[in-house]
Design goal:
This protein has 412 residues and is α+β, with helices and mostly antiparallel strands. It has a domain of 259 residues. Helices cover 20% and strands 27% of the residues. The chain contains 8 helices and 20 strands. The strands form 6 sheets. Strands 2, 5, 6, 9, 10, 11, 12 and 13 form an 8-stranded mixed beta sheet that branches. The protein has a 3-stranded antiparallel beta sheet with strand order 14-15-16. Helix 4 crosses helix 5 and helix 6 crosses helix 7. The chain is globular. This is LysM domain-containing protein. InterPro entries: LysM, LysM_dom_sf. Keywords: Signal.
């Protein structure tokens, strides 16, 4: 049999180049890993893009999160009537609050559970439902699945999600970390600009030798934040709020905000109709979040009623007095938006949009038990440094590799 001419080889490699590119790109997706010891946890954020139109309650159930806390973390008005049943549009980018714990010597969130549907695969659960925050192999390992092609509908899976703490600081300042899944067209400068940080800071935090990223990588993004000073015995000890957003605490009785003028945590009664313990400071007529001021020859004498944490079901308030150079004006809250109904499609090079870019009027704020989810839709120089781990999508890679071998045999 005559040999096939070598001139056919360039055409062959051109034909298979997309397959090999996909193999390399998928196999080498990186995720920042933070080693840890002990059992402590910290508040963290997960960057998530909705894969379908979902109710607020459905998104919250997907991550076992509090619906009100989810909205507060995105500066969405949670006082809107029946807000848990508002439908959020597919493609909307959200920051999902998560407890970042220490498990197996690394930081990750293991509180999320997912109920398998008939058409689900590990790949569809990882890439579509959870937006690339987990890989098929990570789900397989976390659930000790022997045969990933034989998933039983109705089975409950643990979904390991990436998160980092780094002592809740960045360059010695309070910070909360967002796990961000890189999209096609993203660049480190664009992501840095989107989150008001620097290329150097992102590279230091993620232990990057160069500012080179690819689709599917997961970056730890430090967000400036307001830290609390609650005692360790408070149930909301360690509360930290990203700049420009809110947090809900004390059984939905207290809302705390950060910014926009400074990074001092400011807590007031929440605008929700729930039964709460007293929020009045003892030996004073002041309520939580209120203050009085009086100009004196030495400066402005300010007395304020501040939040001190949630202890044994009671709201702790503390009366404080200080002398300031000038009397404070009316407190400025971060702006809030109504639940988004549309998404402005980002351009090729634009990083992920925030809810504030999703349409609706920006306003100022007025002073459910999560369960297993089953959803509709398509089945730092002086800062912290993490390590980088390769996240391999082996099930998809093996399939493509096998296809390549079959075609090689047929052609040669």
């Amino acid at each position: 049999m005559a040999e096939k001419p070598l001139l056919q080889l360039p055409f062959f490699f051109c034909f298979f180049l997309p397959f090999f590119s996909l193999l390399v790109g998928t196999a080498n997706a990186k995720s920042t890993i933070e080693p840890c010891t002990g059992t402590d946890s910290c508040p963290a954020l997960l960057g998530y893009r909705l894969y379908a139109d979902l109710k607020v309650s459905e998104v919250a159930a997907l991550f076992q999160a509090d619906p009100v806390a989810l909205l507060a973390a995105n500066s969405v008005d949670f006082s809107v009537p029946d807000v848990e049943n508002r439908i959020l549009p597919s493609g909307l980018f959200l920051r999902v609050p998560a407890a970042c714990s220490c498990s197996g010597g690394i930081r990750r969130s293991l509180s999320t559970r997912y109920t398998v549907r008939p058409a689900d695969t590990l790949s569809s659960i990882a890439a579509s439902v959870y937006g690339g925050l987990a890989s098929p192999d990570q789900i397989q390992e976390a659930n000790n699945i022997q045969d990933p092609s034989a998933l039983d509908a109705g089975r409950t899976l643990v979904i390991p999600l990436p998160c980092t703490c780094f002592n809740s600081s960045d360059n010695f300042l309070p910070a909360v970390y967002l796990s961000y899944v890189v999209r096609q067209g993203d660049s480190v400068p664009a992501v840095a600009a989107r989150y008001s940080t620097t290329v150097t800071d992102i590279m230091n935090v993620n232990n990057m030798g160069s500012p080179s990223i690819q689709q599917g990588d997961i970056l730890a993004i430090p967000l400036p934040a307001c830290a609390s000073m609650f005692p360790k015995y408070a149930s909301d000890y360690g509360l930290i709020v990203a700049n420009g957003t809110y947090a809900i605490t004390a059984s939905h009785c207290v809302q705390c905000s950060c910014g926009p003028g400074n990074l001092n945590l400011y807590c007031t009664p929440a605008s929700l109709a729930v039964s709460c313990s007293s929020m009045q400071c003892s030996n004073s007529s002041l309520m939580l979040g209120n203050y009085t001021s009086q100009q004196t020859a030495a400066g402005c004498s300010v007395t304020s009623c501040n939040y001190g944490g949630f202890v044994n079901g009671s709201i702790v308030t503390r009366l404080s007095a200080s002398l300031q150079p000038r009397c404070p004006g009316q407190h400025q809250f971060p702006p809030v938006i109504p639940p988004p109904t549309t998404v402005l499609r980002d351009s090729f090079l634009a990083p992920s949009p925030s809810p504030a870019e999703a349409g609706g009027t920006i306003t100022t704020p007025r002073s459910s038990v999560p369960g297993t989810s089953t959803l509709p839709g398509v089945s730092p120089a002086s800062g912290p440094t993490g390590s980088t781990s390769s996240v391999r999508q082996l099930s998809h890679t093996r399939c493509l590799f096998a296809l390549s071998l079959v075609l090689l045999v047929l052609l040669f």
